[in-house]
Amino acid sequence: MEVNKFKKTEMVDITEKKEVFREASAIGKIILKPQTISFIKNGKIVKGDPLITAEIAAIMAAKNTSQIIPLCHPIPITNVSLNSKINFNSIEVEAKVKTTAKTGVEMEALTAVAVYLLTIWDMVKQYEKDEGGQYPTTLIDSIRVKEKLKSEQDE
């Protein structure tokens, strides 16, 4: 007869690691109808400017990643920058996150990109629905880490 065993769950132990400068960038895109893109470019979205709202949401998301990804370490974010590009039927975004900490910021960069794209979707969804209320062409795609850097701090 097997005795009940507790399953161990823990964060990665970074106690002994040295604080160093770290930077990560992530990218992703959302596919939208060309008409929706036109509405965005011309300021016709009823909820307001999706790009500005998505930028604020992405920065907030990066700063709060450890609160929504259970085993992420809380780290001091020193900078979040976002660059977006509007195409014919998509919006691409890159988030770059910086810190001086014991662990990296790739999860914060990925979270920023995901929330940026989700915010765009939320703000334009009324224009993306078909007659049945579905989203047959709207797609969040290609979210990934673009680059991760780590360097010893200058003293």
Strand fraction: 25-35%
Radius of gyration: 19 Å
CATH topology: Alpha-Beta Plaits
Which spans have pLDDT < 50 for at least 5 consecutive residues?
A: none
- Specify the CATH homologous superfamily: Molybdopterin cofactor biosynthesis C (MoaC) domain
The H/E string reads: EHHHEEHE
Helix content: 25-40%
Show the helix and strand layout:
Elements: E1 20-31, H1 34-41, H2 50-63, H3 65-68, E2 77-86, E3 90-101, H4 106-128, E4 139-151
Antiparallel strand pairs: 1-3, 1-4, 2-3
Give a verbal description of the structure.
This protein is α+β, with helices and mostly antiparallel strands and 155 residues long. It has one domain: 2-Layer Sandwich (Alpha-Beta Plaits). A four-stranded antiparallel sheet has the order 2-3-1-4, with helices on one face. Helix 2 packs antiparallel against helix 4. The radius of gyration is 19 Å and the shape is globular. The mean pLDDT is 94.
Concise synopsis of the structure shown:
With 155 residues, this protein is α+β, with helices and mostly antiparallel strands. The chain has helices at 34-41, 50-63, 65-68, 106-128, and strands at residues 20-31, 77-86, 90-101, 139-151.
Question: What tags apply to this protein structure?
Answer:
Alpha-Beta Plaits, globular, four-stranded antiparallel β-sheet, 155 residues, 4 helices, alpha+beta
